[in-house]
User: Fold this.
Amino acid sequence: MFTVIGIMFGGIAVGFLLRKIEFLQKIGKPISYTILLLLFLLGVSVGANDAIVSNLSTLGGQALLIALATTTGSVLAAWLVYRFFFKERSNA
Amino acid sequence: MKGSLIVVGFFALGCLIGWGKLVPDSLISGNLTMYVLYFLMFQVGISIGCDKKLKDILCSIRPKLLLVPLATIIGTLIFSALVSLLLTQWSVFDCLAIGSGFAYYSLSSILITQLKEPTLGVQLATELGTIALMANIIREIFALLGAPLFVKYFGRLAPICAGGATTMDTTLPIITRYSGKDLVFVSIFHGILVDFTVPFFVSFFCSL
Assistant:
């Protein structure tokens, strides 16, 4: 964990020091390519894993449950914040 | 939406190739993924460090606006913890790690797979990463499809909080349409802030 966060902070420092360099502003593209490569590699290890392939529907069901929970939680919290902090202003 | 399809496509392609045993085992068992992840995190760091908008955003923060990402984070984490009561197979921290992907499925699933490997073992860590990927993709789909319903029943901020880390790019058009144009800035600000928190929350919960 500390390696990952440490490397990211290293990147933040480098990015801040080199922020004048034009092409670093376009780092979004290589980031998405790296993410695609990593997801491809994750896919390879998922596909090669017979236990996961045969469990895919169970895992998918659990994923659906978590997605329902996280969406419900954030929507409810949004409703509270909207009701108590934002609504008056938009009515005024 | 096209971006999400490409992402899912790459994952599916990897699944097929792995399933067909078309690649040498060394690709899976080696540390390649780990180094690519380090490379990715370094790039993510650079993008944060050299972001010219970062200063403007930090200066334009009004306390009230912070309530929106705060609602997303607290609401998501409370309900992730609650749902772990139903998913007895996984610990509450595993569920919190998945929830704190905030729909940023690519980064969160990879981080979880790698960071959980030392404690859970390759098998369970890969399973958890797969759940994280699917759960966060489904959350983005909910945010895209549910936006009109969320506005109707839970107010105009609801699509923003549901969208999590995606509200500055993939779900921004739909939020603009249903929540109103005046919330575009709130939505972008919210997305950037939640996006920044993903690596921290995910690695924090993975370490517990």
About this structure: Chain A touches chain B through 74 residues (CB under 8 Å). The mean pLDDT of chain A is 82. Chain A has four helices and no strands. The longest helix of chain A spans residues 56-91.
